[in-house]
Amino acid sequence: MGGCEGSRWRLPNSEREETTSEPQAPLLDRQSAHWKNAVGFWLLGLCNNFSYVVMLSAAHDILRHERASGNQSHVDPSPMPIPHNSSSRFDCNSVSTAAVLLADILPTLLIKLLAPLGLHLLPYSPRVLLSGVCSAGSFVLVAFSHSVSISLCGVVLASISSGLGEVTFLSLTAFYPRAVISWWSSGTGGAGLLGALSYLGLTQAGLSPQHTLLSMLGIPALLLASYFLLLTSPESQDPGGEDEADTGARQPLIGTETSELKPGSSWNLSLQERWTVFKGLLCYIIPLVLVYFAEYFINQGLTNDQHREFAMAAACISDTLGISLSGVLALPLHDFLCSLP
């Protein structure tokens, strides 16, 4: 016994290194997959919302500037403003920028309304490919457009890309660890900042709106690369979480039945089941509707020069006041919900 036990400690160094390194390999693989998915979903959130944000940033140029007649290679360096209402004290276009907002959001709304009826029949990869093609098409169409109507068609393509991508990628997060939702959300926030700043920065640097839009064609390519090359296979993921405690807490949700689910299989719900799930989400949907309504409704604000400085300082009370009211109302609401059986 003593000899056998002693021989166990006299393993060659190479064998001991292999023995200790074997358990580390799966851990390194999981860490690598975690960061690939995290970065992948951040980039998908960024790229998916990028064209949507850029079209809103370019709304003024889309509606106010005309392309030089018969010239497809560049924008007229001295674009002629479309006649607007000179009787108003505001800087008004003949067409409200809300036209661009509606063209940028209504197709997305239609896609999201129709998605539960049959979008699951189309696999994820073709959906992502279609989203990337629509995004690239939106930049090209608006860049080479000679009329507002054609430009708005390009904006519609951007909306289709954003709406289809959002439904697709948010559905896909159900088959990855929960952390990817935060990364996706962070990416969409980055799109709001980087999309607006990139368009403003490039045009202010002297680049024409057309060349600015064409320079953004790398974004759809990055979206496709993030999905097809960076994300790991969802079938090998544990959607329950990363640590043992979290897995234990979620055990009823990831038992034998749910662990065998594949992307698209959860759509086999009856209409009654879908309506039940939707009703449970209304307490989250309604506040978000109000927030986004207010946020985008103020985009039509017509920013008088004499009043602009005071208006910008005074309007900043809105977010702080809203947050304060939500905190005050959340206290009794929390106690009421927690008292329910």
From TrEMBL:
Keywords: Lysosome, Membrane, Transmembrane, Transmembrane helix, Transport
Keyword Membrane in annotation: yes
Source taxon at top rank: Eukaryota
Annotated region described as Disordered, given as residue ranges: 1-28
Transmembrane portions of the chain: 39-59, 98-122, 128-145, 181-200, 212-230, 277-298, 310-331
Alphabetical list of InterPro entries matching this protein: Battenin_disease_Cln3, Battenin_disease_Cln3_subgr, MFS_trans_sf
Pfam families for this protein: CLN3
Record protein name field: Battenin
Species of origin: Sciurus vulgaris (Eurasian red squirrel)
Protein encoded by which gene: CLN3
